[in-house]
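Suppose you are handed only these lines of text.
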Amino acid sequence: MSAEIIDGKKIAAEIRQRLKEEIAADTHEDLPVLAVVLVGENPASQIYVRNKKKAAEEIGMGCEVVEFAESIGENALLHSLEELNENPHINGIIVQQPLPSQINLQKVLEAILPEKDVDGFSPYNAGLLQIKDPSAIVAATPKAVLTLLQKQLGDLSGKHAVIIGRSNIVGKPLALLLLNHDCTVTIAHSKTKNLSALCQEADILVCATGKAKMVKKDWVKKGAVVIDVGINRLENGKLCGDVDFDEVQKHAAAITPVPGGVGPMTIAMLLENTWEAFKKQKNQEKTCHCGHHHDCCCHSHKSHE
Ligand code: NAD
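From them, the structure of the protein bound to nicotinamide-adenine-dinucleotide can be written out as follows.
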């Protein structure tokens, strides 16, 4: 038996096409705009930001890259986020990670207005996900994994999902998302004992560790769906995931490749979050009658309290 390859690249292209059509058909005067804050000159970050900008512009979405020197102070960065929060032409704000050590990441994430937090990393959106509030903006990578699983399996109810990795940007929000979709969820991490035996229990196995090819064939139950979030660069320069693809492919029912699986889906989900944020902000403008467009009740944190 050979696993079905889940074609994230193709599914992501379909989603971007739908977004492109929806944006083209939109009757508002302005376009949705994503602001990407980039600090320093990390080459990987520069590539990620370039890819996001290109993908946004291809679907008719604006993308403003706001660049700062590696040496920028925390207050200056927070001030620039405040300006983006207040700018009515900006609908989504993301801050590319990693940030230099003088900057407190948590403070930065807290500074982004929840309705513009299209990465879903702010404590506010993380909290909404936790209480299963449908208005939560959900982080793009967990949302990408959910979308691929739903496409592959339909209803996820009662499935046992094992997630390896407990980071705030992948493992933890994904666990909540799958729980909210009625999966039975096990979160494994670097201190988990008997990891391979645990993984063998999984109907759905997601790996997000950053450890190349760590998931082997005998970790995977026959017929399981395997989602590989990891992006690792091998010595030969090639990319590979956290799953030993060649081995596991013979065993699983379906598997995502790296590259071409979760990666392209993550960008599509970020664009979708920005488009949804734009539409919500436009609706709020319409329903707000106070006459103070951008500082009004609808645009402040207070409307959520
Ligand atoms: P992280 O380093 O913050 O977290 C890694 C997690 O894996 C930790 O919770 C750790 O406990 C666990 N872990 C590490 N080694 C382990 C082991 N041997 N056994 C069990 N658990 C182990 O990483 P992250 O930010 O969550 O990213 C994980 C991977 O996903 C990375 O390769 C990253 O590049 C990739 N990633 C991909 C996308 C995408 O769009 N495809 C997005 C985000 C992250």
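What can we learn from it? Residues 291-305 have pLDDT under 50 and may be disordered. The pocket of nicotinamide-adenine-dinucleotide is lined by residues 141, 164-167, 169-171, 188-190, 192, 195, 208-211, 214, 229-232, 262-263, 266 (CB under 6 Å).
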